[in-house]
Amino acid sequence: MKTIEELLESKNIRVTAMRLLIYKFLVEKDVAVTLSDIENAFEKSDRTTLYRTIKTFEEKGIVHQIDDGTGITKYALCEKGCNCEIENDLHLHFHCNNCNETVCLTAHKIPQIKVPDGFVAENVNLVVKGICDKCSGH
Amino acid sequence: MKTIEELLESKNIRVTAMRLLIYKFLVEKDVAVTLSDIENAFEKSDRTTLYRTIKTFEEKGIVHQIDDGTGITKYALCEKGCNCEIENDLHLHFHCNNCNETVCLTAHKIPQIKVPDGFVAENVNLVVKGICDKCSGH
DNA sequence: TCATTAATGCACTTCCATTGCATTTGTTTT
DNA sequence: AAAACAAATGCAATGGAAGTGCATTAATGA
Question: Quick one: which of A54, B26, B58, B122 has the fewest CB in 10 Å?
Answer without folding.
Answer: B122
